[in-house]
Design goal:
Layout (H helix, E strand, L loop, with lengths): L2 E8 L5 E7 L2 E5 L8 E2 H17 L3 E12 L2 E4 L2 H8 L10
Antiparallel strand pairs: 1-2, 1-4, 1-5, 2-3, 5-6
Length: 97
C-alpha cells in the first residue's frame, strides 16, 4: 500500500515543512525524517484535513500530500521535486560568475 507525508510551506519563513503528529498535537518540522507517515489515500486525506486549521490560521500555505518510501524507518520522497524540497538546498549555484 502506498505511503504518504503531508507538506506545506511555512507562511512566515517560506520554507518547506512536514506535518508531524505528536499524539493529538500537530506541529510542523523542516526535517522530513520527523514527518508522520500514513498508509493509503484515505489516511492521507484525513491527515490533510487535520492540518486545515493551520492553513486557516495562515501558519502554512500550499498544503498537499505526496508519496514516500520508508527506508530504515524514515520517509524518503519518490519524486525529484520532493527530494529537492526536502534537501532545502538550491539546484543552481549562487554567487559571482
Amino acid at each position: 500500500m502506498a505511503q504518504f507525508v503531508v507538506t506545506a510551506n511555512l507562511t512566515r519563513e517560506g520554507l518547506s515543512a512536514y506535518l508531524r503528529l505528536d499524539g493529538a498535537k500537530r506541529r510542523w518540522t523542516q526535517d522530513i525524517a520527523e514527518a508522520t507517515v500514513v498508509e493509503g489515500e484515505d489516511e492521507a486525506a484525513a491527515l490533510l484535513k487535520s492540518a486545515q486549521p493551520d492553513v486557516d490560521a495562515t501558519l502554512v500555505v500550499g498544503l498537499y500530500h505526496f508519496e514516500v518510501d520508508v527506508e530504515d524507518g524514515k520517509p524518503e520522497p519518490k519524486t525529484a521535486r520532493e527530494k529537492i524540497r526536502a534537501a532545502h538546498k538550491p539546484t543552481i549555484p549562487f554567487g559571482r560568475r
